[in-house]
Amino acid sequence: MRGRWRLFRHEAGRVAGPPAWAYVLLFALSQLIGHWSVATFSSVVVWLSNGILVAALLQLHRRPALAVIAICLAINLVSNSLRGDPGILLWFNALLNLGLAMLVAVLARRFCGAALDMRRPVRLVRFALICAVSVAVAALVASLVASLVLRPSFPVWLFMIQSFSIVELTGLLLVTPVLLLFARAHRFAGMSPARWPETAVLLALTFAVSAEVFWQGDYPILFLTFPPMLLIALRLSPGMTAAALFGLAFVSGVATLTGHGPIQLARLPDTPGLETIPPMLRKLGIFNLYLLIMVATVLPLSTIMSERRRLEARLRARTLAAQEARRLAEHAASARSRFLAMMSHELRTPLNGVAGFADLLAARPGLDPEAVRHAQRIRESSDGLLVLVEDILDFASGDTELTPEALDLAAVAREATAPSRISADARDIELTIDNRLPPRARFTCDRRALRQALQPLIANAVKFTVEGGVCVRLDRAGDGVVIRVSDTGCGIAPDHHIELFQAFSQADASTRRLHSGVGLGLALVARHVRRLGGRVELDSRPGEGSTFTLHLPLERAPDAPAEADVAFAPAADVAPARAHAPAPAPRVLVVDDHPVNREIARIMLQAFGCEVVEARDGHEALQAAADEVFDLLLMDVRMPGMDGLETTRRVRSLPDARGRVPIVAMTADAMPEDVVRCHAAGMNAHLAKPVSQAAMFAIVSRALAGDLPLTASPAASAAA
Question: What's the predicted TM-score (pTM) here?
């Protein structure tokens, strides 16, 4: 993030780096080095003072920075006086140094980001460009003053400008980034892949190679100093790289100034007009150029590697966080599934008793008509409660994975109308299915999703229709199927159409409304239709009824085979036929640990003319299935000792027809994953509690007709 046009650090900014007196001490030390250089070589070898002053301005707040500026300016003036600078140059040199430092500091704060984080390669490149531009401006000013005051020859003037520029630029790039990196050394903690033994070896190798290269004068092997410095840049932090650069500059500088090293082997061109300049001073330009190239190579590489390691560390941290979040989400989803399955089971179990006995009571012969009506109201209330429970659990479960299969859509529509059939009959409302699909046509679709999309539409149509009828029409439309649920009810105002498909939304949510409900049904319809890849449309006006149209892009599956109809009727209907052709009664084994559930199933099955055997748990059921031959097993899932899934697996391992008996899960575990587990265990079908007489009759008829889906044994499934 870019900063503002500001010279000093913002007062709210965090103080980093050494205290103010440390900058003053470093500035004074750099002045002493300059004095020694001038006394020895009549010129400055490398000018570190401006780089130190820039770092101080970038790191310190206003008051300590002003103090540092004043003290450093005084030290510079005293140094210039001791060096013997003539009148105007004494002040000019000091003010030029201060002006250059302030210009670099302002531009760096503006274009290198408020944080001045030199770990970023882009910011380091920007800082180098700022230093180059600022030094060029200072060199232009210095050249004008030098030409007016000293009046040197053109070659000497050109050499002075060249020497000034490279000395100033080297000092700025060598000192300021290094001090800034040191000030933020805490940010490099743990970012270097090298441990302290490797760090010590690399630093020792660099100093040893540097000493070997610069303390000999026979071979031009300056290039040998680059490999160890590159190793340091690749392996160590930018702070350690900066320390190695300082060490290299110190060793090479001392060796070069004392007449050693490859720099001394350089051949100087015979440039007219430079005869008065000492050869060592001219060669120092080559040394400064070497340092400048080393800094420009090693520091950016070190920052790039540091940035790469930082990004890798962030990626690893975010990957771990994402994996942990995924683990927690999966755990939460698993816990939610377990909770919903348990709630579904615990709510359906008592509802099975209420609805089942209400059915049996209403069908009891000789019962007073008023008592029959009361039993029917009990059944209607239990159906309403069941619909509410299913809607809430379905809404909370979210989208589950679809399991497409070849379906007779008219049969699914009949299943969807079954819960509303009693209510429609009680109110003299005609509930019909108009199947205009081709005979025996089947389509690939998820049975549960389609049924749950149709049930709320049919239930609402029956609930809001006072007289007339409700029609479920199935028809082809292009490459898909269109299902229309139409009623002659009160209708819906157009301004309520959109919000109807939102959760907990109702056309009439007032306390004076005529019909109950929580507003989840149509939201679930929209969800399941969307899961099937289709869309739902509404055509309704107040007083004219409503039509909900489901457009489903279902693929055509192979038609159902033409088979002779095999019917199974209740005992009262088949009694005359048995008089002419006696046949043994179908034998059904009912397995359930709950006595109420066993009693309801027994009474319903006996009303159909079945012979019923009861088992209280999986062990009794397995023993009965091994000892006797049954036409059907109705198996509960949750039972103590041995559950229904394990019992089914063991029954499937029995020899001959006993292991091939149709098994239907009659359970309160009605979640989609429960159905999958039942089929995986070897069951042929799934019948969710509470069980009505119509549903019981339908499943028994299909079982005796051999119309239940075939299932492989669990062992064969596992082997596959």
Answer: 0.50
